């Protein structure tokens, strides 16, 4: 497409061809609606009597399909299939695993528009967010394959021991753990499944993926790409089920050797503790959400700040762990920023997420829809007030979906919702007297995922030096706290936002799926 590279930063001005191909994929996808889908275990579909009927969050009268639900027996079957497949997959030369992963990337890219259309229907994402999510998996696969190549399969020759009478050869080798569980969230059901799965597979682990009940279709589409790329039976398995039953059975299973989880702080901490409570500790890579803040100083360009704030607070209806939730603005420019935000918010086009001019679709679940009303009610108490939005939307064309107005609220700095991750299109604003006060408030959260800053260039280094977050942005109109892309911005959190301090798609992420063995060989 004329050299265009889709990322979360470039998605705001795509070429015409992208829109044409997406619209065509949406039209053709209608033939798939209402079909039954199975689990994916040991290389084949497994259909269950228990199913969940998945509806379009933009139109609850549209049934996308019926999806099989796993039980604890299926967990055991999938884990045992992965254990049986592990020795052969571990023994497959890393170069062959890399070649297969590149085939997965090629198939995802080939099916980009069809998968993105399904993601849009399933989650309620606008077309650009859906295309970005699927394209991100292509990047994950290629990046991790390239890192294996650049590091020679993580097999490094070390210096010989300084022994005069012996030839003592040393090396460091990273080896896979075994069976890896991946627990994916509802908001990025393709990317936050595909990324960890790609890392685990290329490292030599076999995988059991558990998808969210709210978004079961994406995992099936990923499974098809993996199977068609030639991944052997049993190496990858896909289950759908409730976290409290199927998810818990998976992370407690004695056949699991490591876990990657994306979701809430409470569940992530539970999973992490459970892995350390075993007879021996198992690795747990947990990304556990955020309460992301932006600091706006008196020196900020308010037009740029407003654009970045709106994009990060209301993109995907606020259902990103990186979404902007807290604005700390210098009191001297607060009214000016509020005015800019109101104008930008009123220009947001809300509606069917498949339409080209729609920027904001519905929230993905009935639970989020109810939470939005609950939070808006709370933001009319304890001294808080809603400045813009604050209502669910039931106008013609929206009445059958989970549509919510983008909402800006001003609140006293002691309001309890400053500390709660809401995961809906609500952002709170507080006035501060100094950058130092803003920094203290921004860092006063148990989370530390993303953070943004708008101010003078002279203030930027101060921001980077003091902010306690894993992903940080300064003076960025493309998004105050969102928009990380593999190869450009590693994505991972500090404090309660992440368990390892290592970021997705960074130099340091892939080795977490392997453990080190030091080898010394005395030559005869």
UniProtKB/TrEMBL annotation:
GO BP terms in the entry: L-proline catabolic process to L-glutamate
Pathway participation: Amino-acid degradation; L-proline degradation into L-glutamate; L-glutamate from L-proline: step 2/2
GO cellular component: cytoplasmic side of plasma membrane
Family annotation (SUPFAM superfamilies): ALDH-like
GO terms of molecular function: L-glutamate gamma-semialdehyde dehydrogenase activity
Swiss-Prot/TrEMBL catalytic activity: L-glutamate 5-semialdehyde + NAD(+) + H2O = L-glutamate + NADH + 2 H(+)
Active site per the UniProt annotation: 287
Keyword Calcium set for record: no
EC number, as in UniProt: 1.2.1.88
Keyword Metal-binding: no
All residue ranges annotated as the Aldehyde dehydrogenase domain in the record: 53-514
Assigned keywords, A-Z: NAD, Oxidoreductase
InterPro entries in UniProt: Ald_DH/histidinol_DH (IPR016161), Ald_DH_C (IPR016163), Ald_DH_CS_CYS (IPR016160), Ald_DH_CS_GLU (IPR029510), Ald_DH_N (IPR016162), Aldehyde_DH_dom (IPR015590), Proline_metab_enzyme (IPR050485)
Superkingdom as given in the UniProt entry: Bacteria
UniProt similarity note: Belongs to the aldehyde dehydrogenase family.
Protein's UniProt name: L-glutamate gamma-semialdehyde dehydrogenase
Organism: Pollutimonas bauzanensis
């Amino acid at each position: 497409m004329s050299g265009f590279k889709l990322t979360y930063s470039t998605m705001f001005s795509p070429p015409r061809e992208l829109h044409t191909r997406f619209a065509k994929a949406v039209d053709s996808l209608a033939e798939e609606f209402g079909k039954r889908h199975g689990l994916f275990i040991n290389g084949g579909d497994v259909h269950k009597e228990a199913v969940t009927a998945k509806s379009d969050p933009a139109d609850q009268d549209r049934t996308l399909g019926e999806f099989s639900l796993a039980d604890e027996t299926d967990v055991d079957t999938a884990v045992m299939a992965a254990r049986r497949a592990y020795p052969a997959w571990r023994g497959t030369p890393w170069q062959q695993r890399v070649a297969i992963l590149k085939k997965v990337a090629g198939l995802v890219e080939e099916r980009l528009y069809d998968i993105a259309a399904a993601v849009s229907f399933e989650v309620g994402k606008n077309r650009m967010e859906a295309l970005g999510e699927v394209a991100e998996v292509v990047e994950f696969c290629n990046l991790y394959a390239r890192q294996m190549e650049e590091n020679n399969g993580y097999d490094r020759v070390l210096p010989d021991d300084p022994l005069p009478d012996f030839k003592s050869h040393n090396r460091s080798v990273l080896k896979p753990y075994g069976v890896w569980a991946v627990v994916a969230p509802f908001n990025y059901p393709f990317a936050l499944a595909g990324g960890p799965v790609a890392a685990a597979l290329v490292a030599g682990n076999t995988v059991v993926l558990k998808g969210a009940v709210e978004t079961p279709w994406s995992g099936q589409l990923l499974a098809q790409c993996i199977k068609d790329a030639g991944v052997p039976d049993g190496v990858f398995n896909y289950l759908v089920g409730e976290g409290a039953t199927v998810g818990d059975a998976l992370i407690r299973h004695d056949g699991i050797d490591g876990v990657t989880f994306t979701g809430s702080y409470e569940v992530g901490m539970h999973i992490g503790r459970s892995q350390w409570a075993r007879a021996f500790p198992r690795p747990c890579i947990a990304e556990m959400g955020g309460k992301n803040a932006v600091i706006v100083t008196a020196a900020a360009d308010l037009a740029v700040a407003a654009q970045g704030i709106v994009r990060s607070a209301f993109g995907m209806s606020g259902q990103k762990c990186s979404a902007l939730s807290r604005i700390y603005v210098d009191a001297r420019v607060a009214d000016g920023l509020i005015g800019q935000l109101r104008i930008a918010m009123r220009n947001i086009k809300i509606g069917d997420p498949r339409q080209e001019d729609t920027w904001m679709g519905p929230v993905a679940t009935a639970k989020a829809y109810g939470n939005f009303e609950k939070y808006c009610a709370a933001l009319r108490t304890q001294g808080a007030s809603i400045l813009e939005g604050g209502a669910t939307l039931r106008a013609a064309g929206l009445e059958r979906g989970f549509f919510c107005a983008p909402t800006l609220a001003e609140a006293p700095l002691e309001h309890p919702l400053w500390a709660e991750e809401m995961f809906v299109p609500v952002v709170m604003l507080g006035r501060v007297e100094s950058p130092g006060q803003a920094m203290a408030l921004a860092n006063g959260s148990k989370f530390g995922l993303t953070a943004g800053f708008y101010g003078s260039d002279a203030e930027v280094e101060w921001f980077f030096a003091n902010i306690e977050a894993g992903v940080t942005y300064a003076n960025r109109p493309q998004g105050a706290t969102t928009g990380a892309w593999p190869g450009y911005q590693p994505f991972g959190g500090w404090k309660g936002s992440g368990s390892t301090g290592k970021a997705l798609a960074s130099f340091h992420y892939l080795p977490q799926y392997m453990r080190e063995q030091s080898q010394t060989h005395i030559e005869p």
